[in-house]
Structures are given as C-alpha cells and as structure tokens.
C-alpha cells in the first residue's frame, strides 16, 4: 500500500471567496452546473421552476460536514462533489424514483479557494449528468468566523414516473431480500486512508466516489418490490430500519452475502489480510457505498442487477435482523466490528 499525496486545488491560491465575492463565485460555480431536463427556470432568479410530469415530487436532504463526512487532504473537490450528489441521488432511487434536480447550500470560510468550489460543482454536475439532473439553485454563506470547516447541504428532487413509491414499511413474511450494488468497499477504503495509505486504489476510489446502482431503484419498483432502502449507514443498521418499519424479522444468508460481495482474492480480502480485519465486518456494517436493498414477493423474478441475500420472516419477534438465524449483535461481535453501522452522534 502506498502513502497518499497532498491534494492541492488548481488555480491561483489567492483567488479566494473573499477576493472574488459571493456573486462572482456563484457565477463560476454555475458555469459548472449543467442543465436539468425538468428545469423551466434554472439558476439566476429567486427560485427555480421545475416541471413535474408525475405531479408528485420525491425530496431528500443530506448534510456533509468537513472532518466527519469528508477530508480535503483525502479527497479532491471533484470527489466531494460526486460523493455529496451520490448520497442524495441514491435516496431518490431507493424510493423507486429518478432524480431530476439538486439544490445546494454551502457554508465555507472566506479564505476558501474558488477553484476548490468550482471543483465541487464539477463533481456534482458529473454525478447528476447521466440522470438528466443538475444543480438548479442553492445558497453560499460564510461559515462562523472561528471555523475553518466546510459544510455542504444537498437537497435532491426526483420523479416517480407514475410508479408508487417503495417504502421501508412494506416487507412481508416470505419475501426475498435482495441486494443491488456493492458493500464494504467504501469502509475498506476508509480503513486504508485512516492508516495513511492510498492503495489499493479501487477501494480508496470507492470511498471517495461511491457508485450507487441508480437504475436498480426504478427497476425494483417496476418489478413489484415491497420495501427498499439505501445502504448509507451499514447493511445491518439499514435492514434494521426496514425490519422496524415493517414489523418483521429479516434473516440474511451469510453464504449468499459472501458470494455477492467478497470475491476470492479481491481487494477487500487483500486489505483485510494486510490489516488483520475480517472483511465481512466491512460488508455487514460499513456505510457510504449506497447500495440498495429491497424485498420482493417470493415468486417474483428479480430484475437485472439484483441478487438474493436472505428472506423475510414473521413469528413472535416483532422485528429484528438476523444472520443465518443469529442475532445481528452477536454477528457484529464475532466479526470484530464496533457496531451494526454508522452512529451519527457517537
């Protein structure tokens, strides 16, 4: 594994928010924004105006705080833009929708280089572009005088195209649990970065720029998924949300999960061996890959991109998550993980 090199923004170091001014920065950032297909009125007025073909709007918000959700010495500005967009776009997909637009609020020190902000905008645009979405508005403010951190708030809007939203509360006993996307890669990359290394590049890149399976969300809705969730905090933690909302027990098939997520001699196995970590811990409890998990009626053919990894059970227990019939908490301890997933106020 190799040591990371410092990530330095391009452009004149003296070209800061304070020097260029709020509206000068906004003009530069908007030049990177791209165009949303549904935008009737885009950035530049007091508010954007969007067409809503479905007459319903999916809306979701995430806040990223420097030092907790990203580090500028680990990730480029473009990486951070990609990551901020992906966290929200995946939530829209998890409802069965397709993202249409983003609104972005950013608080930063006046010493922030404008080139860095332009890089964030470019990353946001690149992540949104394939979906036909774009940043259509937002706000830029100075952070507290004693703060050196950046706070990035992103709101995503989406369209259901006539489909019913897929909720967390619809799982039923007998349903098949399925996965789309990959698990454990971002957590593995974070473990590498925390130890001062920057390779294997595949897992570090996965932490810097998640690759959610956006099309799998609408595909699951079309196929009759009964519940769905974005895996942002960890598989066991997020399955717990479905189990609680649906009043069911979700039993993960460990062997099926390993087949789906841990290829023999793959990067997770290699890094786990090097660091003395069971890679299954990253798969079960690592967040920020933004894979999707969903439940489907037992006889429903799974759509493209989905792999079965367990079942939904009823019984006397009102809710909970198991792995091969073992309570999740016991499995977490067995694989050496600190908890079932990310704790926001831990």
Automatic annotation (TrEMBL):
Domain PurM-like N-terminal: 44-158
Residues the entry annotates as binding Mg(2+) 4: 46, 60, 91
Top-level class of the enzyme under EC nomenclature: transferase
Residues binding ATP: 138-139, 168, 232
Chain positions recorded as Mg(2+) 2 binding sites: 62, 91
Residues involved in substrate binding: 69, 288
Chain sites annotated for binding Mg(2+) 1: 61-62, 139
Protein name, UniProt field: Thiamine-monophosphate kinase
Originating organism: Blastococcus tunisiensis
